[in-house]
């Protein structure tokens, strides 16, 4: 397998874009590895469940592995909570632990759990287009605004 295939393709078009975003599955091999090799940075969506703290450690190790072998520029730029249920004690506990362990990486915006997200998946349309006033749509717009500010982007 050519570990640099995606990076080579991206490098050939990189100058045409300010941002190129890969939306990868939580599986850390295959296409996700290729995306890590081709990326400058990673922004991590993470659920607040019992496995999340282990998952972020595993991802950090994978990023370090890719940085060491293939892409010494790769960094984790941010972590944001998704499917967040603020009224659940366990979710708040995981959130507090993430903020404690990764204070400089945590994004301010959390994406709340919203049943409309699953419905949008089945319609194959973005939630922000189907239900722009849903809690999750508003939160995603706020996250986009936070990223625009973080990277000093102008549109």
Describe the structure.
The protein contains 7 helices and 2 strands. The chain is globular. Helix 1 crosses helix 2. Helix 3 links the parallel strand 1 and strand 2. The termini are far apart. The protein has 155 residues and is mainly alpha-helical. 50% of the residues lie in helices and 8% in strands. The protein has a two-stranded parallel ribbon.
Give the strand line-up of the largest sheet.
1-2
The fraction of residues in strands falls at 5-15%
How many DSSP E strands?
Answer: 2
Mean pLDDT: 92
User: What proportion of the residues is helical, as a percent range?
Assistant: 40-55%
Which short descriptors sum up this protein?
globular; mainly alpha; 155 residues; two-stranded parallel ribbon; 2 strands; 7 helices
How is this structure best summarized?
With 155 residues, the chain is mainly alpha-helical. It has helices spanning 5-13, 31-38, 52-69, 89-101, 115-123, 127-130, 135-150, and strands spanning 41-46, 75-81.
Question: Helices and strands in order, then pairings?
Answer:
Elements: H1 5-13, H2 31-38, E1 41-46, H3 52-69, E2 75-81, H4 89-101, H5 115-123, H6 127-130, H7 135-150
Parallel strand pairs: 1-2
Helix pairs in contact: 1-2
